[in-house]
Amino acid sequence: MKWGSRMTNILILGMTEFFIVLFAVLAYMIKYKGRVDIIAGYDEKQVRDKKGMADFVGNNLIILAVSALLAFMFELLNPSTEFLAFLVFASVIVPIVGIATYFGMRKYLVK
């Protein structure tokens, strides 16, 4: 294995670990501490069910954290395809869950 390839492996693993921690911390803060104010675009006057929104967004962030963990485990088990695992996570799973979260949050808003 060449040095550049090894450096790429470390970088991809590090970025995946970062996403695991990021999504887990955000999920904890929103779902269990009720910090909906850290949700992008949050406006207290527009939300009718703050607890429901916190649970919904927190659950979706948990899904992202677990998905990142699965990608990380796949990267460790299959180093030759780790870039593909990260690419699928970052460019497929994150946008899908993000879009689903955006549209799902609408049920907690004032009509």
Overall structural class, as computed from helix and strand content, comes to: mainly alpha
Relative helix content: over 70%
Q: Provide the residue-averaged pLDDT.
A: 92
Question: Which assembly state applies to the chains in this document?
Answer: single chain
Record field, number of beta strands: 0
Q: State which percent range the strand residues make up.
A: under 5%
User: What separation lies between the terminal Cα atoms?
Assistant: 58 Å
What can be said about this structure in brief?
The longest helix is centred in the N-terminal third of the chain and has 30 residues, at 3-32.
Protein described:
This protein has one domain (3-108). The chain has three helices and no strands. The chain has helices at residues 3-32, 50-77, 82-105. The chain is elongated and about 50 Å long.
Features:
3 helices, 111 residues, mainly alpha, elongated
Q: Which helices and strands occur, and which strands form pairs?
A:
Layout: H1 3-32, H2 50-77, H3 82-105
Helix pairs in contact: 1-2, 2-3
